[in-house]
Amino acid sequence: MEKEKELCMTPVDLAAGGEQLQLLKALVPYLAAGMQKPFVLLIKCMEIQNLAAFFSRPPVLSAQTADTSGKTYGFSEILSGISPYLPRQQRELFSQIQPLLEMLQLFSAMNRSGEESPDPTELFSSMLSPEQQAIFSIFSQPGSEKGDSKTDGQKLDE
User: Fold this and answer.
1) How far apart (Å, rounded) are the C-alpha atoms in residues 27 and 68?
2) C-alpha closest to that of 43 among 9, 4, 17
3) What is this structure's pTM?
């Protein structure tokens, strides 16, 4: 049974030689044992030459013309960009984590927008059943702890 491999090339791989050199690499196992090493080294030299030529071009002529020198990327953006190149298991794990990262970004954006930050106790309480809310409200009320907090604080300061 043949395994189909999806060819997913990074922008650097495309600049290094693209699909043409990928085809040459695919030929390596079919060469005589004594020819494989020199052939692979030749391919790698061609890739290095292609990369040197690519990065020596003026930015206007290169394939990646977007100016990203001053841009910073968030963790979620970076993972989204590299996820197509990850092994299947890691891609699946990331797809499960991604909604959590998006939710964190949303909360962060809400806090930066100048709106008043929501009370964490209200957020937590809204996730509880009515019975759990009643118990939570008893323990979250000021003065529900045993002893006077001022007295306890004074004892710690002494």
Assistant:
1) 37
2) 17
3) 0.49
